[in-house]
What we know:
The protein is mainly beta and 122 residues long. It has strands spanning 3-7, 10-13, 18-25, 33-39, 46-51, 57-59, 67-72, 77-82, 91-101, 104-112, 116-121. The model has no long low-confidence stretch (mean pLDDT 96).
Amino acid sequence: QVQLVESxxxxxxxxxxxxxxxxASGITFSANAIGWYRQAPGEQRELVASISSGGSANxxxxxxxxxTISRDNAKNTVYLQMSSLKPEDTAVYYCNAGYYRGELxxxxxxxxxxxxxxxxxx
Length: 122
């Protein structure tokens, strides 16, 4: 059974930092690309960062320079280090196991975590 479990969310003041973790089981973790998505109330889910099986990272323009994605294949875990947080970063953050088609990250619909709430106060 595939499981992805996010942790590390919480409430932080603007300018602060948080680190999210995504722990995976039931998949060949090292063979999967991983994406971090977020969804704010009333908004569509958006991809904020992704990392290939080889460790190459990509970021949405809105988080570039502030967020860092990394992976530890020995721990079957991907991290999202978030710094200089802004109120507009407030959302539920989800991780997904997927793959790349060229430079495009593609989700596997069955491989989602349940999400972690991040709230940034002004």
